[in-house]
Amino acid sequence: MQTKSSLARVNGIELGYQVFGEGKPVILLHGGFGSLEMFGPNVDLIARDHQVIGVDLQSHGRSPAARRTMTFEAMADDIAELIQRLDLGKAAIVGFSLGGGVALRTGIKHPDLVDRLVLVSTVFKSAGWHPEMVAGMKAMGPDTAEPMKMSPMYQDYTRIAPNVDDWPVLVEELTTLLKKDYDWTDELPKLTMPVMLVVGDADGLPPSHAVEFFTLLGGGLRDANYDRSGMTHHRLAILPGATHYDINFSPALAAAVIPFLDGK
After folding, report:
1. What is the pTM of this model?
2. SS3 letters for 181-202?
3. What is the pLDDT of residues 105-114, one digit of tens each?
4. Among the four residues 117, 169, 219, 238, which has the most C-beta atoms within 10 Å?
5. Could you give the CA distance from residue 209 to residue 34 in angstroms, rounded to a whole number?
6. CATH architecture of the domain formed by 2-261
């Protein structure tokens, strides 16, 4: 179903991206150390009725090593410029984990370019992750590059990266970012577009964090009424039996988000 694979020069770096299907544009942003392949069958499922633009974030996957300090803000600017370069107008963004953080920052910084957001396994503050996740991220560093060569993410990287020897560059950039604390609570009111939060009931963040996030957006504060007049345009989905390590490629993800992408 793929129709195009290319590199785009944005914000001083190059981003690899692939285009699938036709229809309203939906940008997919993968998780840390990964690539578009992290979404598995969900790429084709969403592309049945949408134009999917699968982007490999800074130094990930098909994107050449940037050797630029990795920040959520810079990567959000990358996505905003890509939307403009591709003349998409406004696009929906579906982001998972790291990609969810980038999607969230894009919605906050560039609301005029974002039609709607789907944030999968995404926190609005670094302390939102389970404590063991936080400890694991802070323990990672450049020396993580070698043991991670046993991971599926590295196996995908060896197949698609422009230069496989740049793997340590990606690991150093990302592990440096993962050590930084952040709290975007006060900026959530800047999200003017509809937002859908999707988490697994056994995710890397507790469902209670997703509920808090949903509440801060104004969701779930009152009964919807028989005519649904009490509903916001935001949505919350907790997928049963889903973990942080399989929610991204479970077809249940596409089944949950496609109606939202279609404005239902």
Report:
1. 0.96
2. CCECHHHHHHCCCCEEEEEEEE
3. 999 999 999 9
4. 117
5. 24
6. 3-Layer(aba) Sandwich (3.40)
